[in-house]
Amino acid sequence: MTGVWHDAGWVMRQLMPIGTLGEKSLHAALKEWAAQPGDRFEVTVDGFVIDVVRGETLLEIQTRHLYAMKRKLARLLPAHPVRILHPIAREKWIVRETAVGQPISRRKSPKRGQPGDAFQELVRLTDWLLHPNLTIELLLTQEEEVWRDDGQGSWRRKGWSLHDHRLLAVVGGVTLAQRADFLALLPPDLPDPFTNRQLAERLRCRPALAQKVTYTLRHIQALAVVGKEGRSQLHSLQIE
User: How far apart are the C-alpha atoms of 220 and 127, rounded to whole Å?
Assistant: First the structure.
């Protein structure tokens, strides 16, 4: 697979996988997107198979469940720079197919992912987020979500199963390595101090995600609780 950069970002052109046996489409495509001349793929380092090794740096593609990286990070970070690439679907199209992959329909989802969505996963990695050897890159993508009418899905989905995610383009990205990077994910119009409710309103997210944001930022000492407004805690930015 090769790709080309347009104004909108990196766009898929053709599929020629390198070292992607058994991988889902999104994972394999992002590995190809990240690849540079001289990279080595699927290399065993300290007992773990690494997606891409670039000199001293280890690149891992983690499309979901960042918490699954905990054991690997505990082993690798003391001795190796690690870069995690994590996609967030800025735009998504829902593709419905028959059980054997014949297309039925395609529609654009109204949902638009944003970098702050990453706190859904980052909350599980708080012990490692500021490690000097760790960099997390949030890749804003355009994707297709493929559903198949194969009878294998839940009754709530009337037997439809989520078959795959396909990368269409990488249209942007955010790098997280220091406290300021995480604070930059907060809305610019957020008051200081603020409550979880105010954060949820400005992020246009559920209160549960806002709670994960403030928990994560408190854990890395980017926020502090400075009082209460009624029964709600007030959080203030801790800018270096």
Answer: 8
Q: Rounded to two decimals, what is the model's pTM?
A: 0.86
Residue 139: CB atoms within 10 A of its CB come to 24
Per the structure block, which two tokens stand in for 166? 């396909």
Cis preceding-peptide flag for 110 (omega within 30 of 0): no
Determine the Cα–Cα distance for residues 84 and 63; give it in Å rounded to an integer. Answer: 10
Q: What is the DSSP letter of 156?
A: G
* Residues 20-38: tens digit of each pLDDT: 444 689 999 999 999 999 9
Helix or strand holding residue 22 (H, E):
none
Q: Are 57 and 29 in contact (CB under 8 A)?
A: no
Among candidate residues 31, 26, 29, 25, the one with its CA nearest the CA of residue 50? 31
Helix axes 196-203, 207-219, angle to 10 degrees: 110
